[in-house]
């Protein structure tokens, strides 16, 4: 008889996305992403951070400043785009993307263009912003399914 109480696919992949987000150096928002094939294989992962070759100590992490160039926003690559760009296996057509924060409109464009068909998100804290509303409008028009991850309340402890 098989063991009971094992984690679901959604718990597994959202957990991988959350763990990936823990790599982010961003002091205010850590976002992780995991892209999965239709047969439940992890294809790629990403987190919000600076592009390769750009030192984490050489660029700002502030959310606000007089000059926008002194904030993180012009420099940070979002987790979804990082995961898409990190993939080296060919096409992401038909895959599912798990992400801890609903994608912005720029990431939504990349998700659609990459052929990702489903987005599973944990938080939608920016739901009322124009960028998130634009994301949902584009997803709806392009036939990208998206749904909120329902947390099970299960806690998993990992000793590293």
Structure at a glance:
This protein is of the alpha/beta class and about 160 residues long.
What does this structure look like?
This protein is of the alpha/beta class. Helices cover 28% and strands 17% of the residues. The protein has four helices and five strands, in the order αββαβαβαβ. It has helices spanning 9-21, 79-86, 105-114, 130-142, and strands spanning 32-36, 42-47, 96-101, 118-123, 145-148. The protein has a five-stranded mixed sheet. Helix 3 runs parallel beside helix 4 (130-142). The longest helix has 13 residues, at 9-21. It is globular and about 60 Å long. 31% of the residues are buried. The model has no long low-confidence stretch (mean pLDDT 96).
Write the layout of secondary structure elements.
Blueprint lengths: L8 H13 L10 E5 L5 E6 L31 H8 L9 E6 L3 H10 L3 E6 L6 H13 L2 E4 L12
Parallel strand pairs: 3-4, 4-5
Antiparallel strand pairs: 1-2, 1-3
Helix pairs in contact: 3-4
Q: How would you sum up the major sheet?
A: 5 strands, mixed
State the low-pLDDT regions, or none: none
Q: What strand line-up does the widest sheet have? A: 2-1-3-4-5
Structural class: alpha/beta
Count the beta strands: 5
Order of SSEs, N→C? HEEHEHEHE
Overall, the morphology is: globular
Portion in helices:
25-40%
Number of helices: 4
Distance between the termini: 30 Å
């Amino acid at each position: 008889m098989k063991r009971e109480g094992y984690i679901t696919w959604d718990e597994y992949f959202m957990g991988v996305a959350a763990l990936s987000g823990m790599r982010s150096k961003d002091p205010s928002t850590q976002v992780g992403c995991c892209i999965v094939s239709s047969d439940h294989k992890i294809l790629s992962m990403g987190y919000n951070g600076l592009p390769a070759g750009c030192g984490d100590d050489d660029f700002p992490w502030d959310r606000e400043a007089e000059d926008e160039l002194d904030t993180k926003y012009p420099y940070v690559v979002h987790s979804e785009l990082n995961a898409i760009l990190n993939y080296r296996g060919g096409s992401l057509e038909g895959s599912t993307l798990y992400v801890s924060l609903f994608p912005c409109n720029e990431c939504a464009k990349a998700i659609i263009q990459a052929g990702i068909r489903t987005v599973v998100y944990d938080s939608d804290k920016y739901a009322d912003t124009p960028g998130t509303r634009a994301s949902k409008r584009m997803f709806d028009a392009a036939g990208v399914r998206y749904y909120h991850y329902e947390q099970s309340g299960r806690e998993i402890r990992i000793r590293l």
